[in-house]
Each structure stands twice: as structure tokens, then as C-alpha cells.
């Protein structure tokens, strides 16, 4: 079983966002709609790649996640950093909020 | 220093307004990201891991006080209170909002700065010796030629869509502090037998995934002919450089594949056709640019200053700083002072808004409003009276800018790495911080002597790891960061590409590995040898042994 969510950067401020259940975009990965399996992931990415969203977000793509104790956690460290902010500046990014 | 003329002003202002319109159209949905991306890149706007990034050009690393002050102001107004000085002598902001970037560019334009050609497959910011115009070993100030290169290359219609990006570096000194041999074109100023000043032209150097030391394509080109010769090289590259594979598109690959003799033949053939054209620059015109970089109004001083010597004798912190961060100036009674942006355990190259404003103030007070950015990610006040050095250091030190470590093991180049960069495969900054902390003791740094550690967070080598005495390349191995070590790299006039010493190390192991290498060097060095000298004498094996034993 492989769980995936869609992430992108928001057009106006460039910040990291995740596709949510209601088709919106959230700064919090825990709000993500999760696709279980290849087919569901393809559907999710297709929705995120709709031409009308080009004015909302930039560069949507799928990332692998796991269900951790505190919620969804990306499997790759690069994506973990995107959910938090720079590891060397804990005062910046989402981790600082 | 060079001041914009009406053409420069108009050009930068029009470009700023053009980009404002492009951003407006993008945000309104009138153009797609695919259409917008090349436009934003041409204006220095990247989309990185967490947000947009704005890269601002610092032409040949020279800043006036008002410009540095504005860079600090932009950090506060449009970013999160800091900026990152890069190995291209530029500055990057990590958090600007797209709709605010046009305002930031306007603020830059008001102090004669811009972000044009800081990205894209064009001729990028020309870099040079950070001590230009001040160094005692200099033949001539290289900046008039850098400025002419800037003017020739800005919006050059033929070279806006090259096969790949193109970087030129110039040194006016035989001691190369600008790493010219690892640039697409490196220009080394020297004099011919007739006593005329000109340049050795080195082509096809570079780092990245395929590193090369450049090869000399011409031993000497006179100043008047420099620009037609550069044009000829660029024409050959533009015509024959590979466009089929991004990773083989730099001129270094063309030089490697065709051979330097063939490139030389093609360049000379092209040059023969254009050398007497409009790009031949007359002595009068060159003189005008030399005049723009005329030395400031130095006082006639003795080179010996009793107060300076007394402060050194009385204050260990100050004398340590002078030992590493202050070098000889061509003008008696003056010195060149480097401001380290590498506090122990800090982030290499980062400066806060307040620090930038302070250095701007101090440059006005002590250095004729002149500041330099170095490719090793530090700042320089190039013209400080020896009598003022103690007061300068005291003020720097209060702002955590007085670290005495220039050229030592803690003066590490590190790219932003995976903490910020969308291309990175591993983090660079935390590793540089840990190495800095491990070797932070100053007596130990003095004992180790000059040692250049350079860290890149991916194969693109923005952290220049190939030319580090010890180079570290961060990679991703099955989801974990691991670090490959190279030894024997050198960015100086004796340029060499480091050799991979063996298998990589985990994040947990790599600092110990570096310490083992340093300990080995101390054990086996001859008197007066730097790490690189010892490495060149003994080769890789003794170092390999301490890292891997019988493995």
C-alpha cells in the first residue's frame, strides 16, 4: 500500500501547499487528501493539474507519505523539510508558527 | 566606482516596469507558468523549496555603502530580515512574495542595482578579485574591464539564448583569488614582453557534474582587442555548443570534446573577421572606465602606525583578527579588512538586515563607502587606514562580525543545500556548522593553518567542492543524506580538481572523517606546509588509510 498526497507551491507567495479534500490548498499536510494506490494518485494529480489551477499554484506533484502518530509524514526528507522549513532556521517556515 | 549613466538607468527602469507587467499578467492568469518561468528567471526569480528566491547581481562583487544599506532594507521589507551572499558574489533572498518582487526591483534600481541575467542561459554576473583596486600584488584594477564586460554582455541580443549559462571571471593579480580557471572564460591579467597589459584567455573551466580546469586558448590578448575576442569565443560556443543535452551544454564539454586546438582555430577564424569592427575599444574609452574606478582620496601616511601596533600588542582578539582577516594594501598606511560571514557554528554567507546596514555605515566611516562581496561568501572593506582598524574591529565584533577565521578551516563555503534549494540532494549548512563547531578553537585553527573546506548539497557544485582542499558533496542514498569526500582541489592559480577519496560517509560519520584527515595532515606535514601542500607531496593513500583502514 502506498499513500500519496499532492503538493505544490502557491503562485502569489510561493509557499508550500497541499491539495485538500474539498479541492482547496492548505499549508498543513495534515489537511491533505490522501490517495491510496497508483490509480487514486493519478486521479489526484490530474485534478491538481487542471488548467484553471495554474493561477493558484505552481508545479503540482505527488509525494509519498506515511501515517504517523501525529498525522501524515512524507517519506522523503526533502518533503519533510517542505512541511516545516529550513532545519537550520527553526524560527522560519511553518515550524515557526 | 562606476555610476550608472542615462542608458543604464533607463535600461534598468524599463526592465523593472516590464517585469511588473509580466507579474501582473501572470497573477491575473493572462500567461501560464510555462510562459512566465523563463521571464521570471531572466529577472533572477527562482521557485525554491519553501518559496520564491530572488538573486540580485552584485557586479564584480563591488558595492557602495548606499547599495549595501538598501540590500539590508530589502531583507527587512520584502524578506525575513536576512540575505545570503553566494559564490557568484551575489546576494539571494529566500522568502520574497511574487507580487512584491517588482517593488523590490524598483528599490534596487534606485540604487543602481538589478537582478538581470542572474539566471538563464546567458552571460551571468562577471566576478573578480575581491581586493581589486587595493591589493598590493595587483598589476591593474580589473574592474574597468569587468564593467566593460557587463555592458557588452547585458541584453546582448546574440547571447541571450546560449546553449547554457556562461560565467566569466577576471583576475588582475598573479595570485588568483577569483578562481578564474574554473569558469567558462577566465581572464588572467599579465604583461607581454613589450610591457603592455593584457590577458591570458582561459576557456572551458567549470565545476558541476563534469569538472574541468580551463585551458588557455590565447596567451595574450591586448586590452583593446579583449571584447572582440570574447565575442568570437561566445560565437563559437553559441554555434557549436551542444543543445541536445543540458548536461553536456556548457562550453567545457565543447572544449573537451573538440579539443582546445580546434576551439582555438575556430575562435581565431571568427576573431579575424570581427577584430577591427566596433568591438575594438580605443585607449581613450578604456581610460574613461579606468577613471571611473580611480583610487579614492588616500592620505599620505606612514605604513607604520604606533597605535595600531599598540592595540595588537594589548588585545589578543584584535591581533588574532589582524592575523587572519587583514592584508597588505597597495597604499602605505592602509589595509584590506575582511569581514567574516562565518561565525563559529553560523550559516556561511548569511547576513542580517542590521549587519548589512552596519557594514554599510562602517564602510562610509572607514573605507570610502566601498564594500566587496567575496566568492568565498565574506565581505571586505578594501581601504581602511591602519589607524582605524581597531575601532573598526571593535564595532564589527559587537555585531558578531569580528570572527578571526579568514582562510582557516572554519571559513567554509557552503551552498544553501537541501535546507533551501529545490535541486539539492542533501543539506550543506548543518554540516558546515558542525565542522565549524568541531574546529572552532582558534589556537587549533592557527595550528592547522590555511585549509579550504567547500561543501555542495548536490552534483551541481554551487559550493565549489571540486576545488576545496577538502571537498564535500552531499548526496541522497536510499533516502538518507550521505557525503562524499574529495581531496586536493584548489581554486587558485594552481587550480586542480579534487579526487574522490573513497566511499561516502553518513551524516553521523562525516565530521569525524574530516577530523581524521586533519589529524593525519598534522601528523605528517613538513614545516610550513599547508594541507594542500602535504596532500600534493604524499598523495591520497595516507589519507585514505585513516578513513578506511584496510577497507
TrEMBL record, chain A:
A Pfam family reported for this protein in Swiss-Prot or TrEMBL: DUF2849
The protein's name: DUF2849 domain-containing protein
TrEMBL record, chain B:
Keywords, in A-Z order: 4Fe-4S, Iron, Iron-sulfur, Metal-binding, Oxidoreductase
TM annotation in the entry: none
Domain of life: Bacteria
An example molecular function term from Gene Ontology annotations: 4 iron, 4 sulfur cluster binding
Domain Nitrite/Sulfite reductase ferredoxin-like: 52-109, 338-398
InterPro entries the UniProt entry points to: NiRdtase/SiRdtase_haem-b_fer, Nit/Sulf_reduc_fer-like_dom_sf, NO2/SO3_Rdtase_4Fe4S_dom, NO2/SO3_Rdtase_4Fe4S_prot, NO2/SO3_Rdtase_4Fe4S_sf
GO cellular component, one term: sulfite reductase complex (NADPH)
GO biological process: sulfate assimilation
Cofactor: siroheme; [4Fe-4S] cluster
All copies of domain Nitrite/sulphite reductase 4Fe-4S, residue ranges: 119-273, 410-547
Keyword Oxidoreductase: yes
Entry protein name: Sulfite reductase
Organism: Thalassospira lohafexi
